[in-house]
Amino acid sequence: MVAGWTKHGDGKTLAPGEVVKPDERLSWPRMVGFGAQHVIAMFGATFVFPLVMGLDPNVAIMFSGVATIMFLLIVKGKIPSYLGTSASFVGGVLAIRAAFGGDVPMADAIVTGSILVVGLVLALIGVAIHYVGVQIIHRIFPPVVTGAVVMLIGFGLAYVVADIYWPQDQWIALITMCVTFLIIVLFKGFIGRIGILLGLIIGFLLSWGADRIFGDITAYNAGTGAVDAHPRVSFGAVAQADWIGLPNMHLPDFKVSAVILVLPAVIALVAENVGHVKAVGEMTGTDVDPYIGRAIIGDGAATVVASAFGGSPTTTYAENIGVMAATRVYSTAAYYIAAVIAILFGLCPKFGALVAATPGGVLGGITVILYGMIGLLGAKIWIENRVDFSDPVNMVPVGAGIILAIGPVKQMISSDFTLEGIALGTIVVLVGYHVLRAISNRTGAGGGPGGPAGPVSETEPTGLKREAAG
Questions:
Q1: CA 303 – CA 312 distance, rounded (Å)
Q2: What is the pLDDT of residues 398-435, one digit of tens each?
Q3: Nearest to residue 347, comparing CAs of 65, 23, 149?
Q4: For residue range 7-29, what is the model confidence (pLDDT) as tens digits?
Q5: CA 262, CA 22: separation in Å to the nearest integer?
Q6: Predicted model pTM
Q7: Which uninterrupted H or E stretch holds 220?
Q8: Three-state DSSP string of 224-249
Q9: H/E element holding 59?
């Protein structure tokens, strides 16, 4: 692969307006710098989301590197992109844990088994798109549906903040949230891009300081499931962890009822990949449509491999696309370097134990921002595609689906199977929209700029980016 990169100019400088193309590179020391920057850009979300889902962040970091290498090979180096942990599974994973015993090894295996199945489905969808064409996705998931699914995935997680994280330390959660607000808004450059990560670090340090000054906190303890006195930060596991070694991997287990809870994430992942690939194509000035199917196959295959060893689901990251937009260096060499660095991080168990020690209150302050921003990305999709909500075909199923997700509302299908929250809301939006559209004899794809008698847009779901992760 190294032989495939042509040195750009003298490998040291870029003239105004020049770009480094995917098959080009600068000098290797400079490429290492760009690779490290990509690691920092993806780092916050890639270890925060596994932490939220109860999965090992070290495994997630390591397999994000493996996933990125797989992706680049599958797309033949035509689409520079980094694959980090996906947020789309959080709601479904938490529902699985609630049904199968919480943060226990059995639930861990069922969670990763369910994610593996979704990755396989995503890869098969990619195969279909590769041979049939990307327009099939735009017809099944028009902007009104895609925006709704993204919104309910974000807002459907509100109960996690309210019931699990925030009660563990309300004041630290509030301060962490406010500090993160300020970092993201006041710093426009690189510091602002890693605002989530910096907010988490500051909240961690504040929690440690509060233990030294005020002593143990008496509040809800997620570890015991009860209100008791306990330190906000405990470094016991960090002291016991090795500096070098394999992270805590495990084999998956499979339950149909659990798979259904996370299956709606496929919709968001497809739309996310399409949006990101289009963005890369616009930046590089190349036609990437022939590679959209490959990109989705790559993401699905990477998720299968990662979850087979106890890792987190993957997705393409807009944070890294943002880094490319800022630097105008699109070389895939930087992504290979970033992937290797991530794999090395994953092989340090002490680092993983430190991440796992993040207090629940800090996660409350961080996730309230992440979940809200994810939800609002759905509204962004509607705005950019001029979705018409004066049309009841758009408004009725979308409104109902979002409320079902936010509830979260439970629907008993049988004595041992329940649909609830994000899964139920997604089904209502997708099926409801297409059924109502068929009943009303509409011929367009829906979600267009006009009213019931007006024109209808079949524009692809643009703007679906993981800006929520900083």
A1: 7
A2: 999 999 988 888 888 766 566 777 778 888 988 999 99
A3: 65
A4: 776 677 666 667 788 888 878 88
A5: 34
A6: 0.67
A7: strand 217-221
A8: CCEEEEECCCCCHHHHHCCCCCCCCC
A9: helix 57-74
